[in-house]
Amino acid sequence: MAENTSAPRSVLITGGNRGIGLAIARAFEANGDKVAITYRSGDVPEGLFGVKADVTDAASIDEAFTAVEAAHGPVEVLVANAGVTRDTLLLRMSEEDFTSVIDTNLTGAFRVIKRASKGMIRLRKGRVVLISSVVGLYGSPGQINYAASKSGLIGIARSLTRELGSRGITANVVAPGFINTDMTAELPEETRKSYLSGIPAGRFAEAEEVAGVVRWVASDEAAYISGAVIPVDGGLGMGH
Ligand code: NDP
């Protein structure tokens, strides 16, 4: 991939301590950017600047941003990646199952974007990338809460594009299909098989395959792309 001429930028990835978030962090690091990640527990992966934050808590987000700004300058690239699942069929899904997933995946993204936008407006440039899911577009039984949270991110990206597009800020959605991480490792074998049969590529993907797309959509090369939904799903959603 072509080197990004505007590096080093201050990049922040929520939930960047493992899985897709960590792969995204490594991709920006390889680009020469100053990379910070949020984590809740455990250790900060080697070489990365880690700040503790829970995206359900606006105060902890504010503290994390303040620390990143002091170390790396205002956040120019924000990747809202932190996400959870709490799968169960509608009739068994409690209101808590629903609202807790929305609070992390959707309201959490709103909180970090709101905090990041101040600095981006001042800089008159910025890149917001929201990690959605093929499930947000396609639907999935047992994932009404998750699908609602992930399709909601599209509304955020498109409204943000309309609000801040004239300030050099882009907002895009990357919608992964099935990626080998802790999240999909939890799937029962039968479910994995049935998902696999619907994927034209005939395989799940590695987190790095999502990371490269995120890095590109945050690059100078993608400056005129905003409000887009970019699938990384082996053809599962047929471009949607
Ligand atoms: P993982 O379960 O491996 O990692 C989830 C990350 O989110 C962890 O870093 C976790 O932190 C963080 N996180 C969860 N809740 C919070 C919170 N309240 N505050 C801060 N951080 C939090 O998931 P993946 O890497 O697989 O997924 C990353 C993103 O990609 C998610 O948004 C997911 O929905 C999306 N996605 C994943 C797909 C897949 O197939 N794997 C497919 C499509 C989308 P901690 O380590 O502290 O728990």
UniProtKB/TrEMBL annotation:
Q: Which organism is it from?
A: Arthrobacter halodurans
One Pfam family recorded for the sequence: adh_short_C2
The identity of this protein, by name, is: Beta-ketoacyl-ACP reductase
- Which branch of life, at top level? Bacteria
- UniProt family annotation: Belongs to the short-chain dehydrogenases/reductases (SDR) family.
Q: Record's Gene3D superfamilies? A: NAD(P)-binding Rossmann-like Domain
Q: Which residues form the Ketoreductase domain?
A: 9-182
Supply the NCBIfam families for this chain: PRK12826.1-2
